[in-house]
From TrEMBL:
Keyword Amino-acid biosynthesis: no
Domain Laminin N-terminal: residue ranges: 39-278
GO CC terms of this entry: laminin complex
Listed name of the protein: Laminin, beta 2-like
Coiled-coil annotated residue ranges, if any: 1509-1569
Entry keyword set: Basement membrane, Cell adhesion, Coiled coil, Disulfide bond, Extracellular matrix, Glycoprotein, Laminin EGF-like domain, Phosphoprotein, Repeat, Secreted, Signal
Domain Laminin IV type B stretches: 557-740
Disulfide bridge map: C308-C317, C373-C382, C436-C445, C489-C498, C501-C515, C746-C758, C748-C765, C767-C776, C794-C806, C796-C813, C815-C824, C859-C868, C919-C928, C973-C982, C1029-C1038, C1057-C1069, C1059-C1076, C1078-C1087, C1105-C1117, C1107-C1124, C1126-C1135
Gene source species: Cyprinus carpio carpio
Lineage top rank: taxon: Eukaryota
Annotated signal sequence range: none
Residue ranges constituting the Laminin EGF-like domain according to the UniProt record: 279-342, 343-405, 406-465, 466-517, 746-793, 794-839, 840-889, 890-948, 949-1000, 1001-1056, 1057-1104, 1105-1151
Cell compartment(s), UniProt: Secreted, Extracellular space, Extracellular matrix, Basement membrane
């Protein structure tokens, strides 16, 4: 391996280099930049190399020769001793005495005073070595440059410290193999500005010397939103910098042999180290001075102590000056210096500090807080008086005597007499006003507030609160006495604090009376007391509600007639009972089941033993008169209830018997035929004897009046009882609660009632149908069968029964003679026709019949029919009584009991005297001995039977050939089914064959795996229809690429997009072109390259191609090298020169004369020979052996070379050296170098002449050097006088120009981007606006006729895409229109000829069979065409370019039959029309297919043209938006240029304005051009 890091030799001509000894140290360094002057915003000191002047602060952990001389070698020529050198760093480097010292300070300057290279070098073989720079203060570090003498390190780390070496953080890792060396450090591209990554770019083994490592703290590729943010400033701030070399690059021999002579060639050697930075002042200083204790004053040294401005102080301007703390200290920004503001203490203090909480509370306005306020003042700004002082209203707060003492009563004031320190009416403050305790008032705070009492010194509140409940006190006067504290209560309120209600009251509130009466129900509650908080009364059992006036669910209140006793239910009743049925809609005027029928003069005894309450009761009898037998007599009675003349007293727990005799009024004798229907006896309580009625107070009187007024008692005298008034219900419930001590349980029968609830008054349960009784526990008269569904009506037959009542359990009615059944509605056995019963007529074949119709039951002897008058199925004969015949079995073919009968019935055909069978389902034949169509089997054999063909309903059951009659195999499957049982779809179809739902597979051939589609038929999954897709293709029909894939239609399926991240906007790409959607600045299909018409590495920098349009094949150059693809006649990096073999002025290049080729061959041969000589010399230098030359000759040549070295100053000796060298070369070279030697002599003479001229120009008073030195001194004197003014002007102009240039470049970039998007070219117009390097035109570009040029064929801009889409739409429209017209013509012709063919072609099918096949092929091709159009219509997401591609494929398909072919076929059909058959079906099928084609073509035409129009409109709208944005940017730029007019050069500004005016004009022209295109496009529609 070769190496160029050999130690440089010393030259004897040092006097030639001495002239440059003063300037070399400066040339080797980056000069300090000019300081950024402080104007309205931040200011920054000059930047430079932080190493200058800090050699003492630069250390290395390993340096060769510090302990003594050490030997080191270069990589090659280890066998030569003169290839190894000594390193002796015991003393500092000296160019004349210690030039082999390689201490670390050598890296500050690359060369010494003689111009010789200097370097630092580590100890041999030591890998972990560090170089550290310790700074005396905080500095701003921007970037670092290292130039190595040896290989660059295989691994290294750059670290920083901002706390003077206490903690360290890494900046960047470098390694030849990051993954292997630093496994935990990411090795991807930088994504965030402060991300720590590993980089491999600067760690390669090549180059072997002068390899550089460059690190920038702020990577230009990462946009920094706010360069003045704390994070960025912290990233740039350092106090120490450390470079850790962790791995050497070796050739591998050190792994096997660790001897010192092997390691002598592996070490770190660094020519130069540049640490670029500036003094770190947070933007508050433009210059810096040396830090105290630093004595170095080297030229170009960057000092560390800031000369602070903006009222800041500190080594780095890191804090505000004393008494300048009204605003927080912040780093300065470009537009805001964040100057520290002076505190305002109103002249009472000269000290303050900053308080962030105060600053935030004031809305970021002021945060200064004064310290040690004087003159009895206090506050943040000493703006208020101290406690016990207040501001004199006649004096300003800044007056030293502004605060005077307070005058407050110490008993009633807080803090011993504090008053308001100043007057502020908005806050209710008056200067000198005392601050009273909470419950004290008065100017001196000497008496209690209203609502308080007892002023005292010990009470922290001053006075005690009255504690009166505000709801219970009156609102007139003070709430309590100021001495005793007693409260004034409302009418129904009591207690010291008025917080309790009086007895029988509740609900303390703000009402006028304070509390409300309990108002408990007089019967439902035990008393009139209630709870004070919620008013709840004490209720009797099963009564609820606050007032105890509500009944608990499943309970009721007893009505006034609750104690009633039914007459018909009296035990040992000697009179008859009358049960009355309840008819629907009939008014029920009685209670219970019915009445007791009492004869005139007879009596009844009622037993009473359930008296609830001891009191008097009125006895009432309910009855109804029975009409007398004599029709002329009046009704016997006029009233239906009668009340005893006086009440009777009844008591609980006693049994009473009440005997009553019933006799007509005002008669003395009984009438034997007169009867009375007694319903019940009722006890009516005398309620006026109960509590709540018997008293004389107002409430009792009111209740008695309400009972009479609302006729509450009268409502119970009549039946049915009318609806009770709500007030009556309440009063009756109160009476019931007193009598029964609460509410009564409903006790509804669960079988007879609908629910457990009953009526609130009376307790009547809700009964099921035909159920009666209060508890719903018995059947109503005329019903029976009490159960879960109620009772059933007896429904006794009116003619068959003797009454309407039935047994209540069984429901049996009392029958008349001859009637039978539960309802007495049937005849005796063997008879029918109730009530006119007759004997059954069954021809002797049965004994019983239907009682209503007379149809016979259970006919015998194989007979059937209503009268057993015919034979059953399977038998034949005449079974009518007297015929003499019987029923015999049918022979079909066997009799019914033989197991071989297939007929359902048979009959005798008397004409043929044959027995004809009626075959069962699936059988056929006269004797049912064969299977019917759709069935199979061997019915002719005993035991054989016909079964349905198992074809899953997919055959025609009437077709004899639909299935095999013997085996049952399906032969003619319908509905596109197939298989032995027609149970699956036939090939090319899918679905559910069992549901007659087989559909054709709709696979897209381009996306389906090869081999699954043949002859237009594709195979898919027979169940789901899923087509077998190629790799990365999805969709039911294989019609789409999988997400993030493209190139649909290729043989290998879709390919992955592989869009590079984060260069692309998403992972998706165009499904046809594969183009990813790239971020700005990136291009290529996968966004891994620079954008269009650029080249380079997008991670580093992209350069514009600038290929000459006349010399290059395309505008895009090689994306890696930038080389343009030149035409044959062009060459050069930009194809802007005539190529070799051509002559003329580009671009007019013409081929050279044919003789050129001959000379060119000769020159090439010479070049090859010279290359061979060079290789031979290199081999000699490498191996030390001269081919074909002896050792003696080599020694002679070496002697001659030595002679050459000692005779450089003598011209004659130089000629001898040239002569000797020429002879030596002629010995071992076989080529003639006469011409080359002459050149050497000529160039040597030129060199001598140049040396003489150089000496003359350097030495002497009139030499240019002397004159230059004098001029320089005079210039320095002038500059010194005007340096400050000039530097400020230059700095301001530079800043303004740089800003203008940046804005101009930004506008150029945006305009170029706009041109690319709109026109497809960058639009760099030349002087004549021809834009030769932008074929697609752009802003300002015109063609040869002077017309604005934008877009065109092959251009990717919006205009080009719009025009292309418009052309495509027009082409598609024309092609589809022509195709549609041609098909319509064909349809009309076929429709005209079809009728003629239909009427004439009947006989010759054989001759037309060939023509039929031709039509079928045509139909197949038409179906393919339809399928392609359908696939296109189903496409989604295709851009105009893709639409064009698909449209061209569709249009490329030619119709299989044109008009001429069809006319020829028609002529042939006419010629053979006499023999043609089955034409109707053929032409009907053709007409249907052509109709479908017509419809699909119409849909395709509408969809495609509409789609192109929409996409064109979208593209034009995008162009319009882009132009609008560009106009806004240009307007903004013009405004910025106007603002900068006073501080920039007038000529430069005029040039910028002219350029921007041209740009604005060009953009306006582009906009007008697009607008014209849009208008013309709209007119086309």
């Amino acid at each position: 391996m070769k190496s160029s890091n050999a130690k440089p030799s010393k030259t004897n001509d040092r006097h030639v280099l001495s002239v440059f000894s003063k300037v070399l140290p400066v040339v080797a360094q980056e000069l300090p930049s000019a300081p950024h002057g402080c104007m309205e915003g931040s200011c920054y000191p000059a930047t430079g190399n932080l190493l200058i002047g800090r050699a003492i602060n630069l250390t290395a952990t390993s340096t060769c020769g510090l302990e003594g001389p050490e030997q080191y070698c270069i990589v090659s020529h280890l066998q030569d001793l003169n290839k190894c050198f000594k390193c002796d760093s015991q003393k500092p480097y000296d160019a004349y005495h210690h030039d082999n010292s390689h201490r670390v300070e050598n890296v500050i300057y690359q060369r010494d005073g003689r111009g010789e290279l200097t370097w630092w070098q580590s100890v041999n073989g030591e890998e972990n070595v560090s170089i550290r720079l310790n700074l005396e203060a905080e500095f701003h570090f921007t970037h670092l440059i290292m130039k190595f003498k040896t290989f660059r390190p295989a691994a290294m780390i750059i670290e920083r410290s901002s706390d003077f070496g206490h903690t360290w953080k890494p900046y960047r890792y470098f390694a030849y193999n990051c993954t292997k060396t630093f496994r935990r450090i990411p090795a991807h591209l930088l994504r965030f500005i402060d991300e720590v990554i590993c980089e491999e770019r600067y760690s390669d083994i090549e180059p072997s010397t002068e390899g550089e490592v460059i690190y920038k703290v702020l990577d230009p590729a990462i946009h920094v939103k706010d360069p003045y943010s704390l994070d960025i400033q912290d990233l740039l701030r350092i106090t120490n910098l450390r470079i850790n070399f962790t791995k050497l690059h070796t050739l591998g021999d050190n792994l096997l042999d660790r001897r010192p002579d092997v390691l002598q060639k592996y070490y770190y050697a660094l020519y130069e180290l540049v640490v670029r930075g500036s003094c770190f002042c947070y933007g508050h200083a433009s210059e810096c001075t040396p830090v105290p204790g630093v004595t170095s004053r080297d030229p170009g040294m960057i000092h560390g102590r800031c000369v602070c401005k903006h009222n800041t102080v500190g080594l780095n301007c890191e804090r505000c000056r004393d008494f300048y703390h009204d605003a927080p200290w912040r780093p300065a920004e470009t537009d805001n210096a964040h100057t520290c503001r002076e505190c305002n203490c109103n002249g009472h203090s000269n000290q303050c500090h900053f308080d962030m909480a105060v600053y935030l509370a004031t809305g970021n306005i002021s945060g200064g807080v004064c310290d040690n306020c004087l003159h009895n003042t206090m506050g943040r700004k000493c703006e208020t008086c101290k406690h016990f002082y207040y501001q004199d209203p006649t004096k300003d707060i800044r007056d030293p005597a502004a605060c005077i003492p307070c005058d407050c009563d110490p008993v009633g004031s807080v803090e011993g007499g504090v008053c308001d320190s100043y007057t502020d009416l908005d806050l209710g403050m008056i200067g000198g006003q005392c601050r009273c305790k909470q419950n004290v008032k008065g100017q001196r705070c000497d008496y209690c507030k209203e609502g308080h009492y007892g002023l005292s010194l010990d009470n922290p509140l001053g006075c005690h609160p009255c504690n009166c409940d505000p709801r219970g006190i009156t609102m007139i006067g003070a709430p309590c006495d100021q001495i005793s504290g007693d409260c004034s209560c409302k009418r129904y309120v009591t207690g010291r604090y008025c917080n309790q209600c009086l007895p029988e009251h509740w609900g303390l509130s703000n009402d006028l009376a304070g509390c409300r009466p309990c108002d408990c129900d007089f019967g439902g509650a035990t008393n009139n007391k209630c709870r004070m908080d919620n008013g709840q009364c004490d209720c009797r059992p099963h009564l609820i509600g606050r007032q105890c006036s509500e009944v608990q669910p499943a309970f009721f209140c007893a009505s006034l007639d609750y104690n009633k006793y039914e007459a018909e239910e009296i035990e040992r009743l000697i009179v008859s009972t009358v049960h009355r049925e309840r008819q629907p809609g009939q008014m029920v005027t009685w209670t219970g089941p019915g009445f007791a029928r009492v004869k005139d003069g007879a009596g009844l005894e009622f037993t009473i033993s359930n008296i609830p309450y001891a009191m008097e009761y009125d006895i009432m009898i309910r009855y109804e008169p029975e009409v007398c037998g004599l029709k002329h007599l009046r009704a016997c009675f006029e009233t239906w209830f009668v009340e005893m003349p006086r009440p009777f007293c009844f008591e609980p727990n006693n049994q009473y018997v009440v005997s009553i005799r019933f006799q007509r009024h005002a008669v003395s004798h009984r009438h034997l035929t007169a009867f009375t229907l007694i319903d019940s006896l009722v006890l009516i309580p005398k309620y006026d004897e109960l509590p709540g009625f018997q008293g004389d107070d107002v409430q009792d009187e009111r209740r008695r009046q309400e009972m009479e007024l609302y006729m509450c008692l009268d409502s119970f005298m009549t039946l049915p009882m009318p609806a009770l008034a709500e007030l009556c219900t309440t009063l009756i419930c109160s009476i019931s609660a007193i009598m029964y001590n609460g509410a009564l349980a409903c006790q509804c029968d669960p079988q007879g009632s609908l629910s457990a609830e009953c009526d609130r008054v009376g307790g009547q349960c809700h009964c099921k149908p035909n159920v009666i009784g209060r508890k719903c526990d018995q059947c109503a008269p005329g019903t029976y069968g009490f159960g879960p569904y109620g009772c059933t009506v007896c429904d006794c037959h009116s003619q068959g029964s003797v009454g309407h009542q039935c047994d209540p359990v069984t429901g049996q009615c009392p029958c008349r003679h001859g009637a039978t059944g539960r309802q007495c509605s049937g005849c005796q056995p063997g008879q029918w026709g109730f009530p006119n019963c007759r004997q059954c007529q069954c021809n002797g074949h049965a004994e019983s019949c239907d009682p209503e119709t007379g149809a016979c039951y259970e006919c015998r002897d194989y007979t059937a029919g209503q009268l057993c008058e015919r034979c059953v199925n399977g038998f034949y004969g005449n079974p009518i009584l007297g015929s003499g015949e019987h029923c015999r079995p049918c022979p079909c073919p066997g009799h019914p009991d033989s197991g071989h009968s297939n007929g359902a019935s048979c009959h005798t055909d008397y004409a043929s005297n044959q027995i004809l069978c009626q075959c069962g389902n699936g059988y056929a034949g006269p004797r049912c001995n064969r299977c019917a169509p759709g069935y199979y089997g061997v019915p002719e054999q005993p035991g054989g039977m016909c079964r349905p063909c198992q074809c899953n309903r997919n055959i025609d059951p009437q077709d004899p050939e639909s299935c095999d009659p013997q085996t049952g195999q399906c032969l003619r499957c319908l509905y596109n089914t197939d298989g032995h049982s027609c149970s699956e779809c036939k090939p090319g179809y899918y679905g559910n064959a069992l549901a007659q739902d087989c559909r054709r597979c709709t696979c897209v051939t381009a996306g389906t795996i090869d081999g699954y589609c043949t002859d237009g038929v594709c195979h898919c999954d027979k169940r789901t229809g899923q087509c077998p897709c190629k790799p990365n293709i999805i969709g039911h029909n294989c019609d789409n690429c999988a997400p993030n894939h493209w190139n649909f239609g290729s043989d290998a399926g879709c390919e992955p997009c592989e869009c590079a991240q984060p260069n692309s906007l998403s992972t998706h790409c165009n499904r046809f072109s594969g183009q990813c959607h790239c971020q700005p600045g990136f291009g290529g299909r996968q966004c891994t390259e620079c954008e269009a018409f650029h080249w380079g590495d997008p991670r580093v920098r992209c350069e514009e191609c600038n290929c000459h349009p006349l010399g290059s094949e395309m505008a895009q150059c090689d994306r890696v090298t930038g080389a343009c693809v030149c035409k044959k006649e062009a060459s050069g990096s930009r194809c802007e020169e005539c190529a070799r073999g051509f002559t003329g002025i580009f671009p007019k290049c013409i081929p050279c004369h044919p003789c050129f080729q001959l000379w060119d061959d000769a020159v090439c041969q010479i070049n090859r020979d010279l290359t061979h000589i060079k290789d031979v010399i290199a081999m000699i230098l490498e191996k030390g052996v001269v081919p074909g030359v002896s050792d003696s000759r080599i020694r002679q040549l070496e002697k001659n070379l030595h002679t050459v070295g000692g005779t450089k100053t003598n011209e004659r000796e130089n000629h001898l050296f040239i002569h000797s060298f020429t002879q030596a070369v002629n010995v071992f070279c076989r080529f003639c170098f006469t011409e080359q030697l002459e050149n050497i002599r000529k160039y040597y003479q030129i060199s001598l002449n140049s040396e003489q001229r150089c000496n003359a120009s350097v030495y002497g008073p009139q030499s240019p050097v002397e004159q230059s030195e004098d001029t320089r001194k005079r210039t320095e004197a002038l500059l010194k006088g005007r340096k400050d003014s000039f530097m400020r002007t230059v700095t301001a102009n530079k800043k303004s120009l740089s800003e203008l240039e940046e804005k101009t470049r930004e506008i150029d970039r945006k305009l170029t981007n706009l041109n690319n998007r709109v026109c497809g070219g960058h639009g760099n117009a030349s002087a004549n606006s021809s834009c030769p390097d932008s074929p697609c035109g752009g802003a300002g570009c015109r063609d040869s006729d002077g017309v604005l040029k934008c877009g065109g064929k092959g251009c990717k801009g919006t205009v080009g895409a719009s025009l292309k889409a418009l052309d495509n739409a027009e082409d598609v429209h024309k092609n589809l229109t022509a195709t549609s017209e041609e098909l319509q013509t064909i349809l009309r012709d076929i429709a005209t000829l079809t009728q003629t063919v239909k009427t004439q072609a009947k006989d010759t099918l054989d001759k037309a069979q060939g023509k039929k096949e031709l039509f079928e092929n045509s139909n197949k091709m038409l179906k393919d065409f339809i399928q392609k159009i359908r696939d296109f219509l189903n496409e989604e997401g295709a851009d105009p370019e893709s639409i064009k591609k698909v449209a061209q494929q569709v249009l490329a398909i030619s119709l299989p039959v044109n008009r001429t072919v069809i006319l020829n076929i028609i002529e042939q059909i006419k010629a053979n029309i006499a023999n043609l058959t089955n034409v109707e079906g053929v032409f009907k099928h053709t007409s249907e297919q052509l109709a479908k084609i017509k419809d699909l073509l119409k849909r395709a035409q509408d969809a495609k043209v509409s789609d192109n129009i929409n996409k064109t409109k979208e593209a034009l709208e995008t162009s319009q938006n882009a132009i609008t944005k560009a106009e806004k940017k240009i307007t903004t730029a013009l405004e910025n240029l106007k603002n900068a007019q006073n501080i920039t050069n007038t000529q430069k500004m005029q040039q910028q304005r002219d350029e921007l005016a041209d740009l604005e004009k060009n953009v306006t022209e582009v906009r007008e051009y697009i607008r014209v295109k849009v208008m013309s496009y709209n007119n086309c529609q």
